[in-house]
Structure formats: C-alpha cells, structure tokens
Amino acid sequence: MAGMDISTENRLNDMPNHIEEGDILSLLQWYMDSGVDETIDDLPQDWFELSRSLTQKTTPKSPSPTGQSGIIPKKIAPLASKMVSIEHIVQDAARLAASCNSLSELNDVIKSFNGCSLKNIATNTVFSDGNPDSDIMVIGEAPGVDEDRYGKAIIGKNGQMLDRMFKAIGLSRENDFYLTNILPWRPPGNRKALAEEITICLPFIRRHIELFNPKTLILLGGISANSLINSDLGITRLRGKWLEYDLCGKTIPVRPLFHPAYLLKQPKAKADTWKDLLEIKAKIGEETNKKSGKKSGKKTE
Ligand code: URA
Predict the structure, then answer these.
(1) d(CA 95, CA 77)
(2) How do residues 27-80 score in pLDDT, each as one tens digit?
(3) What is the CA radius of gyration of the chain?
C-alpha cells in the first residue's frame, strides 16, 4: 500500500488474518458514504520528477557560481513540473483539435487523447447527442453517471428535464438541437470539473463549436458559461440576456441558462428559465424568417 506510515503498517500486522465479510462491506459503505468512489488522483502526477527532486534534496550539490545550491525546494518542484506539463498538454490538445476538419474526426481525436486523467476512469468518451445538422448547440458541464455509461451527452435526469424544457417551446433533440459538454469525461463522484481539466479540454470544445457552426449557442450553468464567455460572473447574473460568441470572426448569439440540475433542486428558478426559453423561441423565429426564401446551408451538404 503506497503512502502507508510505519505505525499503520505495524498495527495492520497485528490484526488477525481473517477479516469478516461484514467488516469489509462496512468499510466499503463508509467509503461510499464519504464520497470516495475512485482510488486514483485527479490529475496525472509525474512520480519520476517527484523522486528526482527528493534525490536532489538528500544529495546536495556544491553551490553553483550564482550562489544557488541546485536543490529544488520540496514544495515548488512538483508544482512547477505540473504547471509545465499542463501547458504542454494544452498545446497538444490545441494542435490535435486544429487538425480536425469534421465532427467525426474530432470525436476520434478526443477518444485517443490521453492528456486528461478523467479518461482513465471513464467508461466512455462522451462526444455529443442530438441532431448534428441542426442550428442550435447546447453545451453542459460534464457527463454524469448515465452519460458515462451510454456514451451520449445530457441524457440522464438532467437531460430529461432539458428535453421537457425545450419541448415546451416546440424543440426536440431528435430534430432541433445538438448537445455536448465542456468535458468529454465524467468527473468521479459527480464532483465539479476542475480548472485544470477545463483548461486541458477547452481547445476541443472550441473546435467542436467551430465545426458544428451553430446559429445559436446555449450554455447550461455557470461552468459552461464561464468556460466559453469572457466573464467570471455567476450564472444568476449571466442568464436573462443575449451575449455573444466570436466564431471565427463571426458573432453568434449565446444564451446562458440555469443548469437543469439546479432547476431540479430549485423549482422556483423555472419561472426565470421559462422567460429565457421564450426569448430563445423568438430568436429562432427571427432566424427562420431571415432564412425563408434562402437556400439552406446545412452541415451535411
Ligand atoms: N450530464 C451531462 O452530460 N452534462 C451535464 O452538464 C450534466 C449531466
């Protein structure tokens, strides 16, 4: 067992060899109740770098001409290496994303990308759901347990809530909109996406938006809105108005909404969301009127 101290090891050696099945079950239950459902770290660790910095600490070099000892301070070394490696991972993601010319190429590239440790524990890479030839792109935060199991975006109870909301303004996922997430992999235990995970995956979602080329962008919840719009205001202040997204030099309308998970917990917020939905319906009506008489330019053409 990695990281165990000597006194713990001695105590375990004194324990009887036979452990009751009930003890194991109650230990597992205790882990589950505490939210511990994974045995790995949130981010990749460079253990070689860590051991190198510890070796340098125990065998100090003679002082360098600059007066520096050459010893990497214990706390700074792993942190610095982590920051450098995230920068490299993001560059790699950006290069790979830019190389894709279709949604299916981007899907393949994300599936084979190993720079985000969430992938190691995910059952599926969740790319999207809905109609890839529609004009509306809905972006959530990250897959949950159902999305992870079936490999489709926003299909669990949040997705069902979202479908009911959109049905109320005459839109269905089969015909009228397309869904994806900021992260293509499920964070363990449904915890919030970490800033590092978002930074690493941002080039993929930005390219996803470019390739889908929506006429309207809908962002579900604060994490989705803050990741794609240049603002760190909370969702309560961001919703209720049209914002803009720069899509390769062309400006498209963006509407942040309360996340369906929030609406499930706070039904009173549905009244505000209904106003947002009515404005979305009106905007789509305007777009349709503008388009009528013109030839449609769908992505599949
Ligand atoms: N499931 C998703 O796919 N996205 C969310 O934001 C929430 C649940």
Answers:
(1) 27
(2) 777 777 776 665 555 566 555 554 455 445 444 444 443 334 344 444 444 555
(3) 24
Q: CATH number for the domain including 213?
A: 3.40.470.10
Q: Report the relative pairing of strands 216-220 and 129-130 from DSSP bridges.
A: unpaired
Residue 81 lies in a domain: no
Distance 275 CA to ligand 1 centre (A): 22
Tell whether 103 and 2 lie within a shared domain: no
Pocket probe for ligand 1: among 139, 173, 181, the residue whose CB has the most ligand atoms within 8 Å is 181
193 Cα: distance to centroid of ligand 1 (angstroms): 11
- Helices (DSSP H) in 145-220: which residue ranges? 145-150, 157-167, 195-212
Atom of ligand 1 at shortest range from CA of 179: 3
Q: Are 6 and 12 contacting, i.e. CB atoms less than 8 angstroms apart?
A: no
Q: How far is the CA of 129 from the centre of ligand 1 (A)?
A: 11
Atom of ligand 1 nearest to the CA of 140: 6
CA of 186 to the centre of ligand 1 (A): 9
Q: How many domains does the chain have?
A: 2
Following CA atoms 167, 170, 176, 181 in sequence, which dihedral angle do they give, to the nearest 10 degrees? -40
- Judge if pTM exceeds 0.85: no
